[in-house]
Amino acid sequence: MLAETMSSTNSSTDSSRAASPEDSIAVDIIGMDKWFGEFHVLREINLRVMRGERIVVAGPSGSGKSTMIRCINRLEEHQKGKIIVDGIELTDDVKRVHEVRREVGMVFQHFNLFPHLTILENCALALIWVRKMPRKQAEEIAMHFLERVKIPDQAYKYPGQLSGGQQQRVAIARSLCMNPRVMLFDEPTSALDPEMIKEVLDTMVGLAEDGMTMICVTHEMGFARQVANRIVFMDQGQIVEQNEPGAFFLNPQTERAKLFLSQILH
Amino acid sequence: MDSLQERTDQVFVRTNMLTPSAPPKRTSGAIGWVRANFFSSWGSALATIIVLYISYRIAVPAINFIFVNGVWSGSSRDVCTNTAQGGVQPPEWFGGCWIYVHSYFAQFIYGFYPAPERWRADLVFALFFGGLIPLLVPRVPFKAFNIIFMIVVFPVATFILLTGGHVHFLGFLLPNWLISPSPLKFAIDYAILTAIALAAGYAIARGTQSDPRPTLHGITGAMGLFAIVLILMAMNFGLQPVETSRWGGLLLTLVLAVTGMAVALPLGIILALGRRSKMPVVRLLSTIFIEFWRGVPLVSVLFMASVMLPLLLPEGVSFDNLLRALVGVAMFSAAYMAEVVRGGLQAIPKGQYEGAKALGLTYWQMMGMIVLPQALKIVIPGIVNIFISLFKDTTLVLTIGLFDFLGQIQASFADPNWASSVQVVTAYSFAAGMYFIFCFSMGQYSKFMERRLDTGH
């Protein structure tokens, strides 16, 4: 496959790659299965995300949504099938895994900020140690993204001193500092109280409008309607239905999707 | 159902917000503190009175013993014994024979270190406290130089000063029939050891799937630096050699304790990481090490090192007795330290590991910058516990013929010149006081560090 020959000649810079149709595929999951021991948690997942697309993954709890996106940056390992991110196939080869993690940003439900570092240090850390930038330059970039998520005045505080919504916006800024090609969101607003959900969702809408490729596991259907190109509905480890938001919400095709929507949309 | 409006006692609208005011006098300030802590209830008040009474019963005789009846001058047992025993004190006298402690003081501190060479031990004490105290005070600058001084310069200087340096290195790896022992043989052996270390480092780097080059550079640098240290140790500075069997007293206690602590902490961290590693060989080796050294008492470790090791080594190869004790104490403490650190690593939420990985940090970057700083901060009480315990466990080296601080004190009981009924009480009180000063200081510093580290978050 063209993607594989290109990834074998590719090192850490992507300027050496020629533009090709495969370049517009951000994430390609082909026939992926995953087991936790005996439990078959993901079954035959096929998902292709093009660059600039915004995907919302929805479904009941336990359907494997989070597990699937965690496989994309190798926080979980898949046992069968292929996952190709940005032209790089995910295998046990740790060099490849690190390459993928550099290009994929992730925002977690519980923020996972580093409590012993200031906000600015949280954001600049990866730039200094992974991208090997000088400290001053890294801190400038970090301040730029903190301004973008509208909290530059908190740069010298510690995460424990911020509210949940502010912490999650810092987490988004921290991922953006690495200039990722794909952003993964694992239920980013599920741990926030309603007043703060809006500020985080507004930040994510801003990201979408700037053309970021986003894969988002969320229960916020209003956000999905506003921003998503595609809703991927999962149940019991399988993708049950995929459609545009308008079509999905108005006219769900499967029983499972209909049941799900009747519960969450009053 | 009448509406809420009709039940006018439940409808309420505040027109102005209240400003904060001071709490009542009886529940705040000094009086409030005493009431809350000592007299908060009848039971608490009763307990306070009982404790005050017990403290009085202990403190008064103690002050009598130490200060009121204490003997601070004299030259023999006469001043410390009563008339019935042949001395000058009244029959009811019971006080500390501090003049005896004073006359033996040099021996308690230096052991049998030759008197004209004691300035070398004094210099080592000065370097130790002079280098340590600036390191412990957070506001003092140049911490990097301070650390390099304490980790590199101080140990080498201490070794040369205390032993006299001028070590004759004769080789340790290749058999004697291949090359006869000489500095050249040592150089060849050292080169072979460096090659083995580089190979092992490469294997571990591939195993943790990191770039091998920094590891190889690090090992080369470390072996090169160590070679410089060995050359310094072999140089002749004109110091009279002093065998380790002559070291004793507080000098020996500090050498054992500080070496033990300095080795146990980094080795314990590495073992803890090894025990949690995904590589089966590393995990197995770490577990075996930890379980072995935790499974045997320190006394038996010292005893076996002292008595059995010479039987196992080939003819003519001898291991310095103090070195055996140092290795035993260090390995023993490292095993305990590993489990304490492992507890800290387990307490760090998985999200921290994941957040670091998602950013693309390598294993050692994640451990060094994210996980270990948080984990070590959590287990400061456990680490200081081990250090304090280690400091007091050094007294066990008496079983292998080394006379540490307590050992010297016990050895001085044999002197008939100071034999008296208060000799033992005096000596052990003095020992207890000294150990208490060191251990309590460590505990207080630990409290200070914990409070300081709590400010960030």
Q: What are the SSEs and their pairings?
A:
The complex is a heterodimer of chains A (266) and B (457).
Chain A lengths: L1 H8 L15 E12 L2 E12 L3 E5 L6 H8 L7 E6 L2 E2 L4 H10 E4 L11 H11 L5 H14 L15 H14 L4 E5 L7 H16 L3 E5 L3 H7 L2 E6 L2 E6 L1 H6 L4 H10 L2
Parallel strand pairs in A: 3-8, 3-9, 6-7, 7-8
Antiparallel strand pairs in A: 1-2, 1-4, 4-5, 9-10
Helix pairs in contact in A: 4-5, 4-6, 5-6, 6-7
Chain B lengths: L28 H10 L3 H27 L29 H13 L7 H19 L6 H21 L19 H25 L4 H23 L14 H27 L4 H16 L2 H15 L8 H27 L2 H9 L4 H16 L1 H14 L11 H7 L11 H31 L4
What does this structure look like?
- By secondary structure, chain A is of the alpha/beta class.
- Chain A has 10 helices and 10 strands.
- Chain A has helices spanning 2-9, 65-72, 94-103, 119-129, 135-148, 164-177, 194-209, 221-227, 245-250, 255-264, and strands at residues 25-36, 39-50, 54-58, 80-85, 88-89, 104-107, 182-186, 213-217, 230-235, 238-243.
- Chain A has a 6-stranded mixed beta sheet with strand order 6-7-8-3-9-10, with helices on both faces. Chain A has a 4-stranded antiparallel beta sheet with strand order 2-1-4-5, sandwiched between helices.
- In chain A, helix 4 crosses helix 5 (135-148) and helix 6 (164-177) runs parallel beside helix 7.
- The longest helix of chain A is centred in the C-terminal third of the chain and has 16 residues, at 194-209.
- Mean pLDDT of chain A is 89; it is low at 1-18.
- Chain B is mainly alpha-helical.
- Chain B folds into 3 domains: 43-111 and 407-457, no CATH class; 175-235; 242-402, MetI-like fold (Orthogonal Bundle).
- Chain B has 16 helices and no strands.
- The longest helix of chain B has 31 residues, at 423-453.
- The mean pLDDT of chain B is 87.
- The interface between A and B is medium-sized, with 29 and 21 residues.
